[in-house]
Design a protein that fits this description.
Mean pLDDT: 98
Shape: globular
Bound molecules: SN-glycerol-3-phosphate
Structural class: alpha/beta
Strand order of the largest sheet: 1-2-3-4-5-6-7-8
Largest sheet: 8 strands, parallel, barrel
Length: 220
């Protein structure tokens, strides 16, 4: 399972990249706005900076703002030309699916975002999306089960031999990461806090303290 970080914060991206386990980055307009990145030129510059931090062969999702097919194609082509790492992120709408299908025929990688059902997952796979982003945290928010959706899509994609990778998004906790892995996600995209949470175990801390204390006692 690949690990992406879900942020536009350059320090968080650097920190995750330094761990040596980072495979890519996802962003969205809300995450860009949170970092105060506004205006087309600054937004494009920021995407380029993210691509340079993560290095070659690491996918970086950049989302289109247009909601109509023609606008999505124009915007997506410009984003894809920006850097070879860029994956064009497109919302799950009628125009979005049409645009994914066109990008697919142009060999431009896509990430179909805002996915909340297995039916939507089938449409995105048929259109040739590279990645599919079901938002598991937002499904949990309304007391449905986000992980169950990952399981359902994983079963369908395996049965139908679809190539689209399941990218579990809207991950909020380390537990979500483990559950997504068990449910068959190909990728998780998570905030730095969820990734760092995976390290934590009190027995690791206690065990390390004991080893160091024993070494000190024996060696002075
Ligand atoms: O990758 C999608 C993600 O950014 C949405 O997360 O926490 O806003 O539901 P959240």
């Amino acid at each position: 399972m690949l690990f992406f970080i879900d942020t536009a914060n350059l320090n968080h991206i650097r920190e995750a990249a330094e761990l040596g386990i980072l495979d890519g980055v996802t962003t969205n307009p809300s995450l860009m706005a949170k970092e105060g990145i506004t205006g087309e030129a600054n937004i494009l510059k920021h995407y380029r900076e993210i691509c340079n931090i993560v290095g070659p062969d690491k996918d970086v999702s950049a989302e289109v703002i247009s909601t109509d097919y023609a606008g999505m194609i124009k915007e997506g082509k410009a984003l894809a030309e920006l850097h070879e790492n860029i994956v064009v992120k497109v919302p799950m709408t009628v125009d979005g699916v049409k645009a994914i299908s066109t990008f697919s025929s142009m060999d431009i990688k896509t990430n179909c975002t805002l996915v909340f059902s297995a039916g939507q997952a089938i449409l995105a796979a048929k259109a040739g999306a590279t990645y599919l982003s079901p938002f598991i945290g937002r499904i949990d928010d309304i007391t449905w089960d986000g992980i169950k959706l990952i399981e359902e899509i994983s079963e369908i994609y395996t049965m139908q031999a679809y190539d689209t990778a399941i990218l579990a998004a809207s991950i909020r906790t380390p537990l979500h990461i483990v559950q997504a892995a068990k449910a068959g996600a190909d990728v998780v995209t998570c905030p730095l806090s969820a990734i760092m949470g995976l390290f934590k175990h009190p027995l690791t801390d206690i065990g390390l303290a004991q080893f160091l204390a024993d070494h000190k006692k024996a060696n002075g």
